[in-house]
Design brief:
Layout: E1 7-9, E2 14-15, E3 22-27, E4 30-33, E5 37-44, E6 55-62, E7 65-72, E8 75-76, E9 81-82, E10 87-93, E11 117-120, E12 128-131, E13 143-149, E14 153-159, E15 166-167, E16 184-188, E17 193-202, E18 209-217, E19 227-228, E20 238-239, E21 245-247, E22 250-256, E23 259-263, E24 275-279, E25 282-284, E26 290-292, E27 319-321, E28 331-338, E29 348-355, E30 360-364, E31 369-373, E32 376-378, E33 383-400, E34 421-426, E35 441-458
Parallel strand pairs: 1-32
Antiparallel strand pairs: 2-35, 3-31, 4-30, 5-29, 6-7, 7-10, 8-9, 10-11, 12-13, 13-14, 14-15, 16-17, 17-18, 18-19, 20-23, 21-22, 22-25, 23-24, 25-26, 27-28, 28-29, 30-35, 31-35, 32-35, 33-34, 33-35
């Protein structure tokens, strides 16, 4: 992956999720992938217009309200057919934990309009909305969406309120893909463009691999040709969904959580279509070249129903929620689906939690380790870190010149030792002020002992 020769540290949190900021690691230091912790079921698809194949969930934040869009559908495993047409639904929340279905009265299902359906039609299979943050966006198109299939392509939609939708023409805006997945789009504010990530076949068509491709647009109408993502030296794997979005604490970094599909590997005898799934972490700085972790971000875990085809499918979107531990920092809520495809079951969304920036850390054992960054330009008056240590652990930060030589007053011996568990802790030196290094090109050397370093920034 190519990068500029120098990073600028500013109010955005710099992550270690792709290792791109790292020049070298010594001692016992290594990158450690972390995993979301299971919490409660926050949504159960038990209404008549929903069912066991409800899926392709998307969570959007609009002001103080969250909206969760999803496909309502059900499949009779024994008869091998759907029990009702697919519909697009919406649920709402103010905290990301308690969700309610608004009674919208827009569409008739089983002779009643008492439901939360926002769209009916073939596009409901994978209707994927987003809030358009393009400053030139028209107010009546503040919400946009894509939905469709390989025959009609991906149709565009617009809405003023996220509830009442209109098609943007009758022809597919994006064509040439398989599209039988949640095909996602968003406004890339860092580069002034729309990006769309879609399901395609690569390396041999239907005999090849389910994969992800990207295209871009300046106006959401005219799109470039789909281009399969560059995975570097990662092995070929089936990737079904993508869940790619800019990370809210650093929109220069795109994070994704594709569902990894393992065909012909069964664990539960009644699985109607034997296959297993988990999800993995992917990271990009340019929207095209991605670092893909081979180890699962979220394993199926001990629940039997998660060892069934197309379970562990991540919801598109991360939400900041309050910790249940009094006085503790906010955390990230990550959601994924369980109960999918099981006879007599309903699909459910379970919440998982992760510390802020807590995807990947630089970790070192008690014997110690260190990491040296690539050149960075300090723009703020303070250096902050997101870190955790044991009771005997520690973290120190040394600032060096471009050759790695410690600067006077900013050596490891000058740094005030840090220990604890904090997401926004300020680094201090005994007799030096980092403001004197503003706009100077330097390197940061982090020295860890029984500790994890998740992110840093200059503010």
């Amino acid at each position: 992956m190519s990068h500029s020769n120098n990073w600028t540290t500013d109010s955005f949190w710099e992550l270690f999720a792709d290792g791109a900021i790292i020049d070298s690691m010594k001692g016992g230091a290594q990158l450690r992938l972390h995993h979301p912790v299971p919490q409660e079921v926050v949504f159960e698809c038990d209404r008549p217009w929903e069912g066991n194949t409800s899926g392709y969930f998307s969570i959007l934040q609009d002001g103080n309200r969250y909206r969760m869009y999803y496909r309502g559908s059900d499949y009779d495993v024994r008869a091998k057919k759907a029990t009702h047409p697919e519909v697009t639904c919406v649920a709402e929340s103010t905290d990301g934990i308690r969700w309610e279905r608004p009674n919208l009265g827009l569409y008739t299902f089983n002779r009643s309009r008492r439901n939360n359906i926002v769209w009916m039609g073939p596009e409901s299979h994978n209707f994927a909305p987003f809030v358009d943050t393009n400053p030139r966006c028209s107010p009546d198109a503040r919400y946009k969406a894509l939905g469709g299939n390989h025959e009609i392509g991906l149709i565009g939609f617009r809405s003023e309120d996220g509830v009442r939708w209109q098609k943007i023409g009758e022809r597919g805006l994006i064509t040439g893909g398989a599209f039988d997945s949640l095909n996602t789009a968003f406004w890339d504010e860092q580069n002034g463009r729309y990006l769309a990530y879609c399901r395609v076949w690569t390396r041999g068509g239907f005999e090849g691999y389910r994969d992800i491709a990207v295209c871009e647009s300046g106006d959401f109408i005219n799109w470039t040709k789909l281009r399969p993502l560059d995975w570097g030296d990662a092995p070929h794997e089936h990737l079904y969904t993508n869940a790619i979005r800019p990370y809210f604490r650093n929109p220069r970094i795109l994070l994704g959580f594709p569902m990894r599909f393992v065909p012909n590997r069964a664990k539960v005898p009644e699985d109607p279509f034997p296959a297993l799934c988990d999800n993995v972490l992917i990271v990009s700085r340019d929207g095209y070249r991605f670092k893909r972790w081979s180890e699962a971000f979220q394993r199926p875990g001990p629940q039997r129903e998660r060892w069934v085809n197309r379970n562990n499918m991540p919801v598109w979107g991360l939400v900041v929620t309050r910790s249940r531990l009094p006085g503790c920092p906010d955390e990230i809520s990550f959601y994924s689906v369980e109960g999918y495809y099981l006879p007599g079951s309903t699909a459910r969304v379970r919440r998982f939690t992760l510390r802020l920036d807590g995807f990947v850390s630089v970790n070192a054992p008690y014997s110690g380790g260190e990491v040296l960054t690539r050149p960075v330009t300090l723009q703020g008056s303070r250096l902050q870190v997101n870190y955790a240590t044991s009771a005997v652990g520690s973290l120190k930060v040394e600032i060096t010149d471009l050759q790695g030589n410690p600067l006077k007053g900013f050596t490891a011996e000058d740094c005030v030792e840090m220990y604890g568990d904090e997401v926004e802790a300020e680094v201090r030196w005994k007799n030096a002020d980092i403001r004197h290094l503003r706009n100077r090109n330097v390197r940061l050397r982090f020295l860890l002992r029984d500790a994890d370093l998740y992110a840093f920034r200059s503010v």
